[in-house]
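In this section we walk through a basic example: taking a raw amino acid sequence and producing a predicted 3D structure, encoded as discrete structure tokens. The instruction is simple. Fold the sequence below.
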Amino acid sequence: MSSDTGLLQTIHDRIFAALKLTPSAHAHTHGYQSLDSNADMAAEPHSRADEPAFIKSDVDDANYGTTADPAKDTRASSSSSDAEAAAVAAGLSHLEARDTRWYSYLLTADFWAIIAIGQILALCITATNTFTSFLASVNTNIPAFQTLFNYALLTLIWLPLALYHHGPRKMLSIALRDGWKYFILSFLDVEGNYFTVLAYGSTNILSAQLINFWSIVCVVVLSFFLLKVRYRLLQIAGILICCGGMGILLASDHITGSNGGPGQDMLKGDLFALLGATLYGISNVFEEWFVSKRPVYEVLTFLGIFGVCINGVQAAIFDRNSFAGATWDGQVAGWLVGYTLCLCLFYSLAPLVLRMGSAAVFDVNLLTANFWGVIIGTRVFGYVVHWMYPIAFVLIICGLVVYFLAGSILGDSKKPWLGDNQKDGVAGIGTAKLKALNEARKKGLAGGAEGEA
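The resulting token sequence is shown next.
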């Protein structure tokens, strides 16, 4: 019987040697793992009942990295994720439990940041419109080609940052998995720019700007049905007040005759403006969804890469005839550089408003662009400011104030589509998730949770 046991032991050892496994101290002593777990635990009180009898050899560990137990990384990652989720829940609970009044959000830094950044965006739009007017004045009408440089600059700025954070392999994985989504976002954005520029060439300014109200309608409807956003009556009232201010601006343009007069083809121009406003509205909602879930550098990188491809093909097809009659000199190059820099700044700051506010707040902020356009026009084109303009501007700002009345301390930064405690969102600048983490850290509730700036 002892010889049979010795033979089995020899076979046992050879199997372990072939599999590059070494018996644990306890198993090596007894030859086999005991079937009586209670006896084992009694003999070795520090071992667990579910502890494996055999471990991988040092040679095998070298092939998998420095960690002897890969499950520890998974457990550590899960523990970190649980700690972050708990910290976010505690932070959100603490923020929303504050004793707030109807004006509380208006006293926060976020509200004033939204107003300030929104006006910078409006100035950027005004500047791009001004540079486009300069280009048109010398018969350089290349709407697709002039926007191509913006997407190229976005790629040059944000791609290195994305590669630094993600690495090439992860970026490739994201492109294979979500590239089609980013392609749709870029396509909507490129075409929105293209058809809006075409509209201003065929209809008058008054008609084009009136139809641009449609983008706000698209944003509200899409956010309601697709993103499950529920607007309060005060928010609807705020949007309507802003639109009323814009209406006063347009009325003053009509009174002073600065609406551009009759267009070359009003019907075609109005249809282009309607299509451009629709595409803008859809792309703004889509981008808000993206930047609430993914880092800004990733979103802008893919927006730039796909934008270059789409715009390049479009420029090669539709703008090549315009190149023959266009003017090319140092002055035109300067206008193109100014247009590109202003538009790139616009694209880089837009995600902050979409995170801290919403696509609706983003579009409403841009209504003040017409006011800034007239201010610049008085200095550049000799326009005269009508007395209705200051009233209109104040109305639009008041509409934004009304929009945030009686809201939560988080405003629109807490997104309903991100789930409980914003678990599906990224902890980035301007997000409710990062605010909750910062609040939890401040109150000593965060543990080891970390946010992504």
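Looking at the output, two observations stand out. Residues 352 and 430 are 6 Å apart (CA to CA). The two ends are 69 Å apart (CA to CA). In the next section we compare this with other chains.
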